[in-house]
What does this fold into?
Amino acid sequence: MPERKYLIGGNWKCNGTVASAKELIKVFNEAGTIPENVEVAIAAPFIHIGLVLEELRKDIATSAQNCAASPKTGAFTGEICASQLVDMGVTWVIIGHSERREGFDMAGEDSELVAKKVKTALDAGLKVMFAIGEKKEEREAGITMKVCAEQMAPAAKLLSEEDWANVAIAYEPVWAIGTGLTATPEMAQETHKSIRDWVSENVSPAVAEAVRIQYGGSMKGANAKDLLAQPDIDGGLIGGASLKADFFNVINGAP
Ligand code: PEP
It folds into this structure.
């Protein structure tokens, strides 16, 4: 059985100033050692990536929160290309976050576009935290796994088995993001196991065994230990708590 190293991603979203990012970097730099079985990445806003690359401790990787679907650089105002992120020294990118799929003032990204972005990012040399997850009404209707499968299917079609080595699936129930509501460890484990089974059937058993599945949704120091103790929860994608010293309690919550 391959060992799955825990992956804890911090998603700073559209928060902070240069001054507050510098302050948080200082807190993280002084927060003590990171356990050997944990990999950590911080997804900063594009404008703070340079600062993070320069000042954040080197045992925390840098992530973007989005990239363009097209591999082409050129006359695409406002876009950031995956190859430009690689050129800068960025390691990871979050693709498919529910706040980009829908949720704020823009046309949302559908699963076909998300899959395209995942493939473009991987081809450029980035690693991808590939976010999926159901809304409250979908969980209540009992279609959680149907929704997750539909979100993963276009990516499963585009990605080769080798591509999956650089993908972590971030299962983030939308109703738990930023709400203070967390899936219970048992609830999250059940969905993570179903996701792994789906990957086994639709990609390969080897990829299913190796792929890391992060949980995201109001994860913090106080609940990380119980979530990370579940056999199919291989890390977390952390929003609010990644803006505080508590992020290190999540990191240290890994068994
Ligand atoms: C997220 O945005 O990925 C997230 C999980 O946010 P929060 O931890 O604040 O719920």
User: Anything to note?
Assistant: The chain has a mean pLDDT of 96. Residues 11, 172, 177-178, 216-219, 237-241 surround phosphoenolpyruvate (CB under 6 Å).
